Amino acid sequence: DQQVKQNSPSLSVQEGRISILNCDYTNSMFDYFLWYKKYPAEGPTFLISISSIKDKNEDGRFTVFLNKSAKHLSLHIVPSQPGDSAVYFCAATFQGAQKLVFGQGTRLTINP
Amino acid sequence: DADVTQTPRNRITKTGKRIMLECSQTKGHDRMYWYRQDPGLGLRLIYYSFDVKDINKGEISDGYSVSRQAQAKFSLSLESAIPNQTALYFCATGSRQAAGGYTFGSGTRLTVV
């Protein structure tokens, strides 16, 4: 049972445009969500997070939106840069769970 | 030096062999995790530990065992490797206070032939 789903295995975006990565979850207990970025031959690194008490969190070019009623979150990257080309993982957890549940990942390619 | 170090980085082993993957951390985190990454399946939790005396199974623990030798060391063993254990393995650390979630190692690419 995949509790966190990233239904798009890959996404290709032109440099300078907006990249939108999507994530859906099924467990209504999840109250904290994170995005990780992974380059080849490296481990995932933390990018941005959001608590369920918020519906938006920004950090520079990265914004995460949370729609609790739809159990959906999205990561917006504006403007997209070649260095953003990587695999992005969505993850979720809840108070007391003490572990993260990850989605399948989306490979983002930024074209010059 | 990396905060979370995994050894080896790459390993090819034969079916039926025992193999150990090692992880050490300098983050001072109490929690350690082992995940495997497979194409299309993302990161799946194998085992996790909250301190030296605490070991918990994850969603795919069959065929694996772990040892928490010290707060900073957490090793993963495959007692008798099989080809479908070919994957990328990641160790991660975390703490209750870490709002950024986990710190991951660089991974071990394991191939079982």
Description:
The complex is a heterodimer of chains A (112) and B (113). Chain A has 112 residues and is an all-beta fold. Chain A is built from no helices and eleven strands. In chain A, strands 2, 4, 5, 9, 10 and 11 form a six-stranded mixed β-sheet that branches. Chain A has a five-stranded antiparallel β-sheet with strand order 1-3-8-7-6, with no helix packed on it. Chain A is globular and about 40 Å long. Chain B is mainly β and 113 residues long. Helices cover 0% and strands 58% of the residues of chain B. Chain B has no helices and eleven strands. Chain B is globular, with a radius of gyration of 13 Å. Chain B starts with a strand and ends with a strand. The model of chain B has no long low-confidence stretch (mean pLDDT 93). Classes of the chains: A mainly beta (112), B mainly beta (113). The interface between A and B is medium-sized, with 23 and 24 residues.
Q: Number of helical runs of chain A?
A: 0
Tell me roughly what share of residues is in helical segments of chain A. under 10%
Overall radius of gyration of chain B: 13 Å
How much of the sequence of chain B is in beta strands? over 45%
Mean pLDDT over the residues of chain B:
93
Lay out the secondary structure.
The complex is a heterodimer of chains A (112) and B (113).
Chain A: E1 4-5, E2 10-14, E3 19-25, E4 32-38, E5 45-51, E6 56-59, E7 62-67, E8 72-77, E9 86-93, E10 101-102, E11 106-111
Parallel strand pairs in A: 2-11
Antiparallel strand pairs in A: 1-3, 3-8, 4-5, 4-9, 6-7, 7-8, 9-10, 9-11
Chain B: E1 4-7, E2 10-13, E3 19-25, E4 31-38, E5 42-51, E6 54-57, E7 64-70, E8 73-78, E9 87-94, E10 103-104, E11 108-112
Parallel strand pairs in B: 2-11
Antiparallel strand pairs in B: 1-3, 3-8, 4-5, 4-9, 5-6, 7-8, 9-10, 9-11
